[in-house]
């Protein structure tokens, strides 16, 4: 039996929206589940030639949540981001002095902001930003893909850091 912890499970017989949002919430919760228990130092440890770290992945995902839901879907113009034209990898830059607990709390806050934005739209509603190119359905499905891809990165990093494995 898998140790799912307190992670939400998508409905087995839900409607389209409940199923999409259920899988997205499972991926989001799994990011946090895989990172919990690491020290700040281990979460910021670079194991690859790139600047990819557990903490950096989570900060990146917080910025991506805010970008897609607040900026693109809701058309907000005052959305904070850690990347800039001068430092396009700004959200990935972390040190052992960055608190993993604070990074996780910020990610969970970004996810809550995304849920709040999504709750005001239907799946077929077109985003207000980004030249009205995408629907909420597209954004939520893309976020499943984006989050799951980075969850795989965290999964491998966690195994290298302390041997922890699991779903």
Give structural notes.
The protein has helices at 16-35, 40-43, 54-73, 100-119, 136-162. With 167 residues, it is mainly alpha-helical. The chain is globular and about 45 Å long. The model has no long low-confidence stretch (mean pLDDT 93).
Question: Can I get a quick summary?
Answer:
With 167 residues, the protein is mostly helical. The chain has five helices and no strands.
Tags for this model:
5 helices, mainly alpha, single chain, 167 residues, globular, 0% strand
Report, as a whole number of angstroms, the end-to-end distance: 10 Å
Outline the biggest β-sheet. none
Q: What helical percentage do the residues reach?
A: 40-55%
Q: Give Rg in angstroms.
A: 16 Å
Query: Mean pLDDT, nearest integer?
Result: 93
The SSE string, one letter per element, is HHHHH
Low-confidence stretches: none
Strand content: under 5%
How many DSSP-defined strands? 0
Q: Kindly name the structural category.
A: mainly alpha
* Number of helices in the DSSP assignment: 5
What is the overall shape? globular
Record the SSE blueprint.
Elements: H1 16-35, H2 40-43, H3 54-73, H4 100-119, H5 136-162
Helix pairs in contact: 1-5, 3-4, 3-5
């Amino acid at each position: 039996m898998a140790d799912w912890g307190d992670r939400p499970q998508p409905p087995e017989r839900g409607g389209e929206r409940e199923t999409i949002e259920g899988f997205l919430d499972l991926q989001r919760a799994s990011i946090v589940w895989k990172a919990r228990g690491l020290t700040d130092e281990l979460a910021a440890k670079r194991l690859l030639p790139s600047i990819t770290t557990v903490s950096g992945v989570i900060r990146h995902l917080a910025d991506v949540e805010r970008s897609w839901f607040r900026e693109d879907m809701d058309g907000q113009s005052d959305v904070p981001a850690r990347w800039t034209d001068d430092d396009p990898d700004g959200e990935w830059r972390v040190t052992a002095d960055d608190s993993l607990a604070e990074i996780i709390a910020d990610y969970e806050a970004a996810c809550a902001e995304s849920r709040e934005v999504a709750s005001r739209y239907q799946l077929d509603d077109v985003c207000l930003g980004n030249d009205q190119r995408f629907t909420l359905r597209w954004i939520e499905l893309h976020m499943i893909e984006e989050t799951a891809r980075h969850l795989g990165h965290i999964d491998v990093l966690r195994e290298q850091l302390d041997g922890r494995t699991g779903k």
